[in-house]
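Section 5.1 Outputs to date
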Amino acid sequence: YGVCAPTLDLAPRLGGLTVPTLVLGGAADWLMPPAVSVDGLARLIPGADAHLFARSGHLPFLEEPAAFQRVVGDWLARVATAEAARTRAVDGPFADRPRADGPRAAERIA
């Protein structure tokens, strides 16, 4: 990682992301300062959400575990609600039936 990280630049590809994305960072992170992480990455990813942990460095899941769990949990709940609404809109009356492409699809088909 230390050898390739300084030369690896995926920024040009971030604009192609089409999945819900949450960018997290710590205000005191010296490895990935907020200008690079939260501010920089979130701007490059269409529709990305971002959260800056005020009392964290590089490891907000260890430095602010309760806040981290709340932020990520709330974000996942919003994404799940939006996905459920999208699925209902696409599938209409069949929205509650198991989907062949959904989780554990191989088990249902077998």
